[in-house]
Design a protein that fits this description.
seven-stranded mixed sheet, TIM Barrel, alpha/beta, single chain
Length: 1237
């Protein structure tokens, strides 16, 4: 399971003390790195700000190298601490010493940001290339502090072969390096960590190591560096007249006095004032070991191997004012000048003013006039020429508020992006709080009618909120890049960029990096990382170390545990946000630096979404959603096969048979309701209408679960508990959810009507609910909520219960608008699955990776719904999975005879077509249909479903739903954005279907592991152009593919249509040329089959294992079918037999592990799904059982479990008490589960 790149949102800063010690000097630290100087700074910005405030500093400068990525966090913390923050950065020109630049004013900040952008855009990701000339060009409004080369200040131990500083901030000059100056030799002191602690368990800092004299002295090199520094200082002084300083940094070295004399002399000679600084890398000396580890990671070596690249002691921390006064006792003016610089720098990030682009309005109209015109025109398309009064009032209210708050340009930008996507037939839909807006609905941004569903606009935009609206738009994940590139093209690279995502250390990555830095063997580090259970553990403990052969009480073991837990949560590097685009009226690069992304054609700003939110900046979220890709693909297959044109807006709604399928939890592949938790809820909630889907999407979330809202709602829905309201105003808020608050909007409304909150206070409550990772945030509202409800006469019991429910939203709950947007896709995907299972299954597999299930489970589910699935074959398969007309016929699409399209509708149309099922000669043994267990259980009145086994419904009489219930969809063109929602299409059995050709789902070449898409496309195109392949030699000659590709296809049995089995095909493949060149010289050689000796065929079990190896699934027997006799002898039941097993009785089952899941609300319980040849079983593993059998439970591909069967609401589980693996029997099976946490 991958570790998510999550950086926790910061907690409000609490500073213990502020007053400077008596007699201490006024001091501002001017040179300080946060951990956004990646793999170098060893403290969070919060920690540095808090320490500086407690030490009595007057100001603190954050000066990360070539970046402003950490400055917003420092800004927010400094405001909370009441400490002045200087915004700056250390810049490293390639032809001059480093220089620390501080922004004196807003213009200077803009130039600093632009300067960093220039360097970052010029270099590869993660690098920065600047010259002294670049710095001089951007000098206005900036104050400069020059860092002399290492040898000048006597810090030769800080030089590196590349001239970059290593442990400290000094570096060698290019001229010195070109002269071949030798590096300092000697071995640095080994890591000194945690040999003792105070009474509170805090680690003592490592002992200070004196610098070594005489190591690596190079007088010629020092002289060269002195000359280079003097020349650079003259250039810097000219670029920053009256604003240039020389930074002097002393760290209790034995030669500090000599160093200070040299710096003072250089200052006088260059006529540049000397100023004190600390080269701060961490807030406290105890972080030195972590900084050493970060340095080792950065250099790709161990701490012991760093040698002279290590800092000499632990003095790069924020020191007391007395220590600073002592160190610079001979230069008090250098200390005083820190305040001189602090006074000169009056810039604050609060001065940034974000302006949105306004050029989208046509000539003669203001942006507001244009927005209003579009909104009213869209309303008439949505509702007709005569608008209902409620719609008219809502639109007028929203437009007035948008104009008042000046958000019209933002709405126009989102409309423009959506309009572009629709013009390219890219499926998209707005979601989140934007679905509360009638304006967004009328503009075609969202597809949920907020007037019809009574959604609260103030949840989206409110004058009391003082917060920018947030519009999230989902696009097809395969085509979202087209949308992003359109934004770049429309506004230019200087005005648009993706927000960043901060990739942080999680436990496993921290274990690996720290273990390597400490010199642990790679196999031991890897074993420890793999043993770590990210689903239940957040920190490294002693027990995990013992399991992996690391003694946690040894010196190295103590170091490892302490350092790993310190490193967790540290930023590792910047990546790209999933789609948040920041667009500005003026140059974006003067607001925040822009850098190259790892992906070609993308640029990223250095701030993430939390930074943007803290500064009140708008972003357009162009998000990627795999289900939209799948729906668009399914729409395309249906259109080409039947002529029916579906769009999100015209799928017939409220179809009873679709809801019947949903109520049975027959929802594999259906958006949002395919997880174990959702499928367990469906038979209990029994959705019957669209709003029930909204509730279904929202109720299986940590918020409602933790707030104890689920069971009361279900009991009331079933009539088992009365629905009552303490007042009419509460009834108006909660009537649709039977008196139980399920949505954030309801919590806001209740706070206002029942507790007397103002709209602004209610919005603060919403924000607290939104900060669901920050536990305890909502508790601060408790007193006010309870007091307000008491004052209004509500009973204490009701007030306490309501608060607990609201507090549950602190564990993540959905806004109603967000749930409504998702419910739309739930219904559309369920409709497609019910009426067009072949097209839907093909679309899902072609859209991978996405969703909850692997392709193997999606294919199996399709077959269980009567879809004939045919295997991969070079003479039948395209790159994508496709729909195939019986007898292999193909139809044209547009002007191309593409084999991937125009195939008919699949096995779901057999009853209507009146055609018998017949095997495709090319598919050989691949044409399997339902297994015998399913047939038998169906005859007994049950159908084996994904949740084990449940009772059959009348709608199950025909596979995939009765043909009489299938609608005739409207053959209308795709509507314009914001167009009407046609009621066309039958929702029952009134429409007669015209006969359709019998079709099957043909697996595509994309299913084969290791086959590149360009190779698959070449096979497809060659076959379309020149007809079927006649032999393997013919295939190789015509495609030009080499032996490795041909062997892969042979292993996959993809030459079955050539009447050659796997082994014979493999023999012939090995006789083909190794290169991708055809060899016409040998055209007259005997045919392939004449070259191949007679070989025994693979056994059925070997065939199945080969299928899994090459495609990850099989259309033959299930792997466990070969062990059924042995399993039966052990008392192991097939999963289909669980349907008749008695509740509460012991049972044994076995199967492949399809998935493991441990939701955060499950109190440590792990859910697993096992699959055998008859179906699947739901497995529940409590924490104690998991701990006893952790190794097989977490790693085995197949398990035998023993436990007790539980049956509730037609859902069957096995609560296990023993777990054994089947690794010996299935050692050669290539199968991997999908695990979630």
């Amino acid at each position: 399971m991958p570790e998510a790149p999550y950086l926790p949102k910061r907690q409000p800063l609490v500073v213990e003390g502020r007053a400077a010690p008596p007699g201490g000097p006024a001091y501002a630290e001017l040179h300080c790195y946060t951990n956004f100087s990646f793999l170098e700074g060893a403290s969070h910005a919060d920690e540095l700000v808090a320490a500086a405030a407690e030490l009595g500093y007057r100001a603190l400068a954050v000066t990360d190298r070539n970046t402003l990525a950490g400055v917003v966090r420092a800004h927010v913390a400094a405001k909370e601490a009441g400490l002045k923050l200087l915004v700056g950065a250390e810049i490293t020109p390639v032809d001059a010493p480093p220089v620390v630049l501080w922004a004196a004013d807003r213009a200077g900040y803009g130039r600093l940001s632009r300067l960093i952008t220039v360097g970052r855009r010029r270099a590869a990701k993660g690098a920065c290339e600047l010259t002294l000339a670049d710095v001089a060009e951007h000098a206005a409004g900036l104050v400069a502090g020059v860092l002399p080369y290492a040898g000048v200040a006597g810090d030769a131990a800080q030089r590196s072969p590349q001239g970059q500083r290593t442990g400290g901030s000094l570096r060698s000059s290019p001229a010195t390096l070109s002269q071949g100056a030798s590096l300092d030799s000697g071995t640095a002191a080994s890591l000194r960590v945690f040999e003792g602690g105070d009474a509170n368990g805090a680690a003592h800092p490592p002992p200070l190591a004196p610098p070594r004299r005489g190591e690596g002295d190079n007088h010629d090199g020092c002289a060269i560096e002195l000359a280079e520094t003097q020349r650079a200082l003259a250039a810097y002084r000219e670029a920053f007249p009256g604003r240039c300083y020389l930074l002097g940094e002393l760290h209790y070295g034995v030669d500090d006095a000599d160093k200070l004399q040299r710096l003072a002399a250089l200052s006088r000679q260059a006529r540049v004032p000397l100023v004190a600084a600390g080269d701060v890398h961490y807030h406290a000396a105890a972080r030195m070991p972590l900084q050493q580890v970060l340095t080792a990671i950065r250099h790709g070596t161990t701490v012991a191997g760093l040698g002279a690249r290590l800092m000499a002691n632990a003095e790069r921390h924020l020191r007391t004012l007395e220590q600073i006064e002592t160190v610079f006792a001979a230069a008090p003016a250098a200390i005083a000048r820190t305040m001189e610089i602090a006074d000169r720098c009056q810039f604050s990030l609060d001065q940034l003013r974000y302006e949105y682009p306004e050029e989208l309005a046509p000539p003669g109209e203001t942006p507001m006039q244009y927005l209003a015109r579009l909104a009213w025109e869209g309303a008439r398309r949505r509702y007709g020429a005569v608008l209902p009064d409620k719609v008219r009032d809502s639109l007028a209210h929203e437009l007035a508020l948008i104009e008042e708050l000046r958000y019209e340009a933002f709405f126009l930008t989102v409309y423009d992006v959506v309009r572009f996507a629709r013009s390219r037939e890219i499926l998209c839909q707005g979601r989140g709080s934007a679905a509360n807006s009638a304006v967004c609905f009328c503009l075609g941004i969202t597809e949920v009618d907020p007037v019809r569903h009574d959604l609260l606009f103030e949840r989206f935009v409110s004058r009391e909120r003082h917060e920018a609206p947030d519009i999230d738009v989902d696009f097809e994940h395969e085509r979202r890049e087209e949308v992003l590139q359109y934004v770049y093209q429309r506004y230019g690279r200087e005005r648009a960029g993706l927000a960043a995502t901060v990739i942080t250390y999680r436990a496993r990555s921290a274990i690996r990096d720290v273990g390597k830095a400490l010199g642990l063997s790679l196999d031991r580090v890897d074993a420890l990382a793999k043993n770590f259970d990210a689903r239940s553990e957040r920190t490294l403990g002693d027990e995990r170390c013992v399991q992996s052969g690391v003694d946690p009480q040894s010196r190295t073991g103590r170091q490892l545990v302490a350092l790993v837990n310190e490193l967790i949560g540290f930023p590792r590097h910047l990546s790209q946000h999933v789609g948040g685009m920041v667009i500005t009226q003026g140059p974006l690069c003067e607001l925040v630096p822009i850098e190259n992304a790892s992906m070609d054609g993308r640029t990223v700003i250095q701030w993430d979404k939390d930074d943007l939110e803290d500064l009140g900046m708008l972003k357009v979220d162009c998000l990627a959603l795999g289900m939209l890709t799948a729906i668009r693909r399914a729409f395309g297959l249906i259109r080409r096969a039947t002529g029916r044109q579906y769009a999100l807006a015209n799928v017939p709604h409220e179809d009873p048979s679709v809801y019947g399928m949903i109520q049975r939890a027959d929802t594999i592949g259906v958006f949002q309701i395919e997880s174990r938790a959702q499928m367990s809820m469906l038979p209990r909630l029994k959705p019957r209408c669209f709003y029930d889907l909204v509730v279904e999407v929202a109720i299986v979330r940590p918020g409602p679960i933790q707030g104890n809202m689920v069971h009361p709602y279900l009991r009331r829905r079933r009539g088992l508990e009365p629905v009552s309201y303490p007042s009419e105003e509460v009834r108006q808020v909660l009537c649709r959810t039977l008196g139980v608050p399920l949505f954030q909007e309801q919590a806001m409304q209740l706070a206002m009507v029942a507790a007397g909150f103002t709209a602004d206070e209610a919005d603060q409550l919403r924000r607290a609910m939104g900060a669901w990772r920050k536990t305890g945030v909502i508790d601060k509202f408790r007193v006010k909520l309870l007091a307000g409800m008491r004052a209004k006469g509500y009973p204490e019991e009701f007030a306490l219960r309501l608060f607990e429910q609201i507090r549950g939203f602190g564990e993540y709950g959905f806004p109603e608008s967000h749930a409504a947007s998702f419910a739309k896709l739930v219904y559309v995907s369920a409709y497609l699955k019910h009426y067009y299972p072949a097209a839907f299954a093909a679309a899902l597999v072609n859209s991978q990776p996405m969703g909850f299930y692997a392709p193997g489970q999606l294919v199996r589910d399709a077959r269980e719904h009567g879809v004939e699935v045919r295997g991969v074959d070079v003479n039948a398969s395209d790159w994508d999975c496709s729909l195939e007309v019986e007898r292999g016929e193909r139809s044209e699409v547009g002007d191309q005879k593409a084999a991937t399209v125009g195939r008919g509708m699949g096995a779901e149309l057999r009853a209507t077509a009146g055609l018998p099922s017949s095997a495709n000669p090319a598919s050989g043994a691949h044409c399997w249909t339902s297994q015998q267990w399913h047939k038998q259980s169906s005859q007994q009145g049950h159908t084996a479903g994904w949740l084990g086994t449940s009772e059959a419904s009348p709608q199950d009489a025909a596979t995939g739903g009765s043909a009489a219930l299938r609608p005739q969809a409207p053959a209308a063109p795709v509507p314009e954005p914001g167009g009407p929602s046609p009621q066309g299409g039958a929702t029952g059995g009134s429409a007669a279907l015209r006969p359709q050709p019998l079709v099957a789902l043909r697996l595509g070449l994309r299913m084969l592991r290791g086959l590149a898409e360009d190779a698959g496309r070449r096979i497809e195109q060659e076959r379309i152009a020149r007809g079927p392949f006649r032999s393997i030699g013919d295939f190789t000659t015509r495609t030009g593919l080499g032996q490795a590709v041909v062997k892969l296809l042979a292993d996959a049995d993809a030459f079955a249509s050539l009447a050659v089995d796997r082994r014979a095909a493999l023999w012939q493949a090995l006789a083909q040329p190794r290169t991708a060149e055809s060899l016409p010289l040998f055209d007259d050689l005997p045919a392939d089959d004449e070259l191949a000796p007679p070989l025994p065929e693979l056994s059925p079990q070997q065939q199945v294992f080969a299928d899994y190896l090459t495609a990850g699934l099989t259309l033959r027997e299930h792997p466990l079918a070969f062990y059924r006799e042995e399993l039966t002898a052990l008392g192991v039941k097939p999963t289909a037999a669980l349907a008749t097993h008695e509740h509460g009785r012991p049972v044994k089952v076995a199967g492949l592990v399809l998935m493991r899941q441990r939701p955060g609300t499950a109190k440590g319980i792990t859910f697993m799904t096992l699959e055998d040849e008859t179906g699947v079983a739901n497995i529940v593993v409590h924490p104690g059982v998991w701990k006893r059998f952790e190794l097989p439970a977490r790693r085995a591909k197949a398990l035998v479990v023993r436990g007790r069967l539980e049956r509730k609401d037609r859902v069957i589980h096995v609560v296990v008490n023993r777990i054994d693996d089947m690794e010996v029997e299935l050692a050669d099976l290539r199968h991997k589960s999908r695990d979630f946490h």
